[in-house]
Specification:
heterodimer; A: alpha/beta; globular; B: six-stranded mixed β-sheet; six-stranded mixed β-sheet; about 30% helix
């Protein structure tokens, strides 16, 4: 399409200054032509080519046109209007004020400084959660890179450019019978190289590349220009980040290299699992990956190369379905007035839930109230109590078969137990909460808002309230009158 | 225009009515019935009469292989398909059989081409079961440059075929109730599934709704009392396999 003229009117929008002229599209600031105030600043994106020309970038615009109208949540630009694709293709959406991750990384590399580890973890977790929210909407981004991640305000990360994305509810316009790689060479996942589209773990790989970049200032696989160069990531392991930056903690290297595993099923099974580790560094399970300081040897790479040569396309199941199979399960374990029977039934319920969900991750949580610790008695000091509670949680979990499940243990400190549990569940994208139906001697009651009732009512996910199995002699007795 | 597309009613009146009611609720302004009004099910006369009435009100009604076979059945055949055709033949009166026999095989409405099986050889009843057969049908129909959409039935499954970034067609299996953008700058072929005898494991009736103005296509699944229809099939003395099939949706 021809460039638009500033001041002109188009479908009810007044065209403002052109703020970006890319190879594929031009972006203009716009306002409502009738003078009505917009709820937020707006931009209009107009493709350079006409729809129907069939080239990849116009298909990309078509895909973005489809997806922006259906995606929702704080991690995508808010949608305003779309022009008819055949007649006048354009998209009007929220104008985002902020900095791209690319610019933010460049501000460090330009100053020859490393990004502090806490900032990498904090931002990495935010990006992972933003990506997870896409996956929950059955969409894989498939072109994640620092230029497409917008840091809008301290707590808001927005993902841009859905031109290569794949929404499982719609025909994939970029699919073809002879599959070829679609994506940005530096960040594309190995399975995308052979034409697989629609696996959420491809996005986990791209986040791994971005984390590697944030941690070291370098790209793990460079920017390959050839297909052969692209295929390298099917078998080659990147140089360990700690070899490039000595002060990088082992846990962060573990996280980054797990994201960059050539085989998707060796990566984090969902972006929420990745965010969880980034938010709980002390709970990251360290493996060989954490300690390697040199790349793998020739024989390992050769073996992988042979396996990669046979890698080919297979269709992926729905993204939302895939991540639903690897939920984060949180179990709230009481630490006061909890009978052995309570703890036992809670463990039984947890074992049952995990048994049906291989790949689920378990977060064992308890809440410590400020009054629980004593400032005078050193054996009951806050840190001592914290340590004791943590040990209790680990002991409680010993009866569980955790071979296939990653587990972590957390003592939260808060006055309001229900609030603390809810906030934790929300912040960590917990999919299922398991807790006792009775707390502190109170049975579940109809009118008393006990902790479990409060949690069940406002939880962002499913809650299982566990009731104690009654001893046999009580089973014959009549129910107390209600 | 919102065009409701129903196919393979197979003499199942409650499924037919459930789809019609659902389409009306969705604001359908036109109706196309893509053949196989009869065969398998217990209500051939009711379905034919209702279709004649709808045709007079402006609906497009096409002929399918069962509408052809059941008018001229192999009366001595011993397979359950032949037996069913003979049973259906007996239920219909002369006028109804005549009406079925004169139904057209194809129709064009704006940019929409309608056919029971495939556009390249409508009378050969080819199943659109892969990208190749879909491509032949789509190519034949779009020789008329105004045609953007081809709709058919016959396969008892809901699929949408489209061109991705390669040369060949791609097949997409839709999720019920999702409005899929089908822009007129592309060419599309869809099989709308069967209203009266679903075969993909879900016993609910199938149909599709095309919103031509908004270029949105929605595949729907509508629940109805399929158990009751299965009981009627058994009571009518039709082959048991037909009742079982309806209950399992297979």
């Amino acid at each position: 399409m021809k460039p638009l003229v500033e001041g002109a009117e188009l479908d009810g929008f007044r065209i403002g200054a052109r703020i970006h002229a890319g190879a594929m599209a031009q972006i203009y600031a716009v306002t409502f032509a009738d003078g009505r105030a917009a709820p937020f600043p707006m931009v209009m994106k107009v493709p350079r080519m006409a729809v129907g020309e069939g080239s990849e970038n116009i298909v990309g615009f078509e895909i973005e046109h489809q997806l922006l109208q259906v995606l929702h949540g704080p991690h995508v630009p808010r949608f305003v209007a779309a022009g008819d694709l055949g007649r006048l293709p354009y998209l009007v959406m929220e104008r985002l004020e902020g900095q791209t991750l690319e610019a933010w990384i460049a501000s460090y590399t330009g100053a020859r400084k490393f990004i502090p580890v806490e900032d990498i973890a904090r931002l990495g977790a935010q990006i992972a959660l933003a990506v997870h929210s896409l996956h929950q909407q059955n969409t894989c981004h498939l072109d994640l890179k620092p230029a497409n991640v917008m840091l809008v305000e301290p707590e808001r990360v927005v993902l841009l450019d859905f031109g290569l994305s794949c929404h499982a509810d719609y025909p994939d316009l970029l699919a073809e019978e002879f599959r070829k790689a679609v994506g940005s060479p530096a960040w594309i996942a190995p399975e995308q190289v052979v034409g697989v589209r629609g696996d959420p773990r491809s996005d986990v790989f791209a986040i791994g590349v971005m984390l590697y970049e944030m941690a070291t200032g370098e790209l793990p696989f460079g920017e390959p220009q050839t297909t052969g160069g692209l295929r390298q990531r099917l078998w080659m392991e990147p140089r360990p980040p700690r070899a490039r930056r000595a002060d990088l903690p082992e846990w962060l290297q573990e996280i980054i290299l797990r994201c960059l595993e050539p085989q998707a099923d060796r990566r984090y099974p969902s972006a929420a699992h990745l965010a969880f580790d980034l938010r709980n560094p002390d709970q990251v399970r360290l493996t060989e990956r954490a300690r390697v300081t040199r790349g793998q040897g020739f024989w390992v790479h050769l073996k992988r190369w042979v396996r990669a040569a046979g890698l080919q396309y297979h269709p992926s199941p729905l993204a939302a379905q895939q991540i639903a199979q690897v939920p984060i399960v949180m179990v709230a374990v009481p630490h006061q007035e909890a009978s052995d029977l309570t703890l036992y039934t809670l463990r039984q319920a947890t074992a049952r839930s995990l048994g049906t969900r291989p790949g689920a991750r378990l977060a064992v949580v308890t809440v410590m109230k400020p009054g629980d610790a004593s400032s005078t008695d050193s054996s009951r000091s806050e840190t001592a109590l914290h340590r004791r509670l943590l040990a209790n949680l680990r002991q409680w979990a010993q009866g569980l078969d955790l071979a296939d499940h990653q587990a972590s243990f957390h003592v939260l400190e808060a006055g309001d137990v229900a609030q603390a549990l809810l906030r934790y569940a929300e912040g960590n994208q917990v999919d299922l909460i398991i807790m006792g139906a009775a707390t502190h001697g109170l049975q579940a009651q109809r009118f008393v808002a006990t902790v479990p009732i409060k949690v069940a009512m406002s939880a962002p996910c499913t809650v299982i309230l566990v009731k104690q199995t009654l001893p046999f002699e009580q089973l014959g007795q009549a129910e107390p009158a209600a | 225009m919102k065009l409701a597309l129903l196919s393979d009613l197979h003499a199942n009146m409650p499924a037919f009515e459930a789809c019609l009611a659902h389409a009306r609720e969705q604001g359908a302004s036109r109706l196309a019935i893509l053949g196989d009004l009869v065969g398998y099910g217990p209500h051939p006369t009711e379905v034919v009469e209702r279709c004649r009435e709808l045709e007079q009100q402006g609906a497009i009604v096409l002929r399918g292989n069962h509408d052809t076979l059941d008018v001229n059945p192999v009366l001595t055949g011993s397979s359950w398909a032949d037996m069913t055709a003979a049973w259906t033949h007996k239920q219909l009166d002369g006028a109804q059989r005549e009406w079925l026999a004169q139904l057209p095989l194809t129709a064009v409405l704006d940019s929409v081409f309608l056919v029971h099986a495939t556009a390249d050889a409508p009378e050969r009843w080819v199943y659109v079961q892969d990208e190749m057969t879909a491509a032949r049908s789509l190519d034949a129909a779009t020789r008329d440059a105004a045609v953007r959409y081809v709709f058919g039935g016959h396969v008892h499954q809901q699929s949408l075929f489209y061109r991705g970034s390669g040369r060949g067609l791609m097949r997409f299996v839709p999720r019920a109730g999702v409005a899929i953008p089908v822009g007129p700058h592309r060419r599309w072929l869809a099989t709308v599934g069967s209203a009266g005898q679903p075969r993909d494991g879900d016993p609910r009736a199938n149909y599709a709704l095309l919103d031509l103005g908004a270029a949105l296509l929605t595949f729907h699944r509508v629940a109805y009392d399929h158990g009751a229809v299965a009981r009627e099939i058994r009571a009518a003395g039709l082959p048991l396999v037909l009742a079982n099939r309806l209950e399992a949706g297979e």
